[in-house]
Amino acid sequence: MSNPGAIHLATNLGGKLKREEVIDTIEKYEKYHANYGGDEKERKENYADMVNKYYDLVTSFYEYGWGESFHFASRLKGESLKEGMKRHEHFIALQLCLKPGQKVLDVGCGIGGPLREIAQFSMTSITGLNINEYQITRGKLLDRKAGVDKTCDYVKADFMNMPFPDNSFDAAYAIDATCHAPDVLNFTFNLVVVFSGYQKPPFDIDDVSLKVGCYKEIHRVLKPGQCFAAYEWCMTDSFDPNNREHQSIKSEIELGNGLPDIRTTTQCLEAVKQAGFELMVLECVGLAPKGSRRVQTLLEKSAKGLLDGGRKGIFTADYFFVVRKPRLDSSSYEAAGN
Ligand SMILES: C[S@@+](CC[C@H](N)C(=O)[O-])C[C@H]1O[C@@H](n2cnc3c(N)ncnc32)[C@H](O)[C@@H]1O
């Protein structure tokens, strides 16, 4: 258990929420979900608001119960929870063959538990990308305490639309995070462009739609020939969308975890390929998970959904893959000025 998490939990439920905002926030959050009359379209359209409400509410609970890393991990016989989590993180570093000095992207970094562990283990410089401001504030503080603040940093942004130039990183990973994406391939992003002053805009539109998706964004910001590794949350191919019990388990997992939808393993694999990646490693491990009162109830429901999903074999939080952005062929290499 992390002491700072316990203090935050005792004194300040949720992230940057004021005490009086908690009830209103959880009510608005719940309304996005099927159990409270919400639908998938609305969750997908409002994914950023939904995810931020969720993490503002639960981050202190997570930190109290889980520590600094917010992901599942298998446990070997005799291994503590913390050791299992670290092994999970080291596994990613080893699968990505990280080398000292490399520039790495952590997509959806939480409060930076994996970032600090992997940066120290592999002597790399990691940028944590996160849409939630409160988590970034916690991450920066914990980085200073761990002494990795000179080599690692955080960027508050949406992984559907990353503020990095093309070909920026030597490696990227996502742990239990891209499951929050409304769409990993094609997502219509509405930018409202506001111009101030007398200068006329260079174009005649006030609403620009960009097609982006988080896998495509990761592909774009990785250098050619470099790899992306992920632990994804997926419905397995045993999931039957017409089975009411399966649907109800899926809805409970979405509600308890701030998810707009859960893709199947097949959809996930197809999406990484369509984003332009080559598949290097693929593994699917079964799930054996063990998280003011309403937030607690929300998390308890989530645990039930996760367990039921794992037991029925229709859900996994451990769909692991490593994919590579193809190397440039010699003509594109020369065209790129090399
Ligand atoms: C379950 S937590 C996992 C955090 C971290 N990977 C770890 O293992 O500790 C999911 C993370 O994804 C982030 N996230 C969700 N949607 C996001 C988005 N659209 N853009 C950036 N980060 C996002 C959340 O804020 C949260 O930090």
UniProtKB/TrEMBL annotation:
Pathway: Steroid biosynthesis; sterol biosynthesis; Alkaloid biosynthesis; vindoline biosynthesis. InterPro entries: Erg6_SMT_methyltransf, Methyltransf_11, MeTrfase_SMT, SAM-dependent_MTases_sf, Sterol_MeTrfase_C. Keywords: Lipid biosynthesis, Lipid metabolism, Methyltransferase, S-adenosyl-L-methionine, Steroid biosynthesis, Steroid metabolism, Sterol biosynthesis, Sterol metabolism, Transferase. GO terms for biological process: alkaloid metabolic process; methylation; sterol biosynthetic process. GO terms for molecular function: sterol 24-C-methyltransferase activity. It comes from the Eukaryota. One of its GO terms (cellular component) is endoplasmic reticulum. Residues 54-326 form the SAM-dependent methyltransferase Erg6/SMT-type domain. Its EC number is 2.1.1.-. The keyword Thylakoid does not apply. The keyword Lipid biosynthesis applies. Coiled coil: none annotated. PANTHER family: HYPOTHETICAL LOC100005854, ZGC:194242. Belongs to the class I-like SAM-binding methyltransferase superfamily. Erg6/SMT family. This is Methyltransferase.
